[in-house]
Design goal:
mainly alpha, elongated
Length: 104
């Protein structure tokens, strides 16, 4: 049975992982000049970073959960939300580069 502590702990982990996935996706999109490089780095490096973070933060989640459910909720969901935040609510990298050139 899932307790309130498990739900709160999982929400904290999902929130932190979403922030990490958003920042990493944004960093890769702004710094990489290749067409598909940001997607490749995002799809391979972000899950590794979130998995390593889950190994540490997962110890603070009380209760037991199925490993597949935990990986789905704590890694796949934040990656999807992070991509969505970066793609839909952040300015396009070309707009950021144009603003940098105008200032400097």
């Amino acid at each position: 049975m899932i307790t309130i502590g498990t739900i709160v702990g999982l929400l904290v982990v999902v929130t932190l992982h979403t922030v990490v996935a958003t920042v990493m996706t944004r960093f890769f999109r702004l710094r990489l000049d290749t067409r598909g490089g940001a997607a490749v780095f995002s799809l391979f490096l972000i899950p590794v970073a979130l998995f390593l973070s889950l190994l540490v933060l997962g110890q603070a989640i009380p209760g037991r959960m199925e490993p597949n459910t935990l990986l789905l909720v704590a890694i796949v969901l934040p990656i999807t939300l992070g991509f969505a935040v970066d793609l839909f609510w952040m300015p396009h990298p070309e707009e950021v580069e144009l603003a940098r050139r105008e200032r400097g």
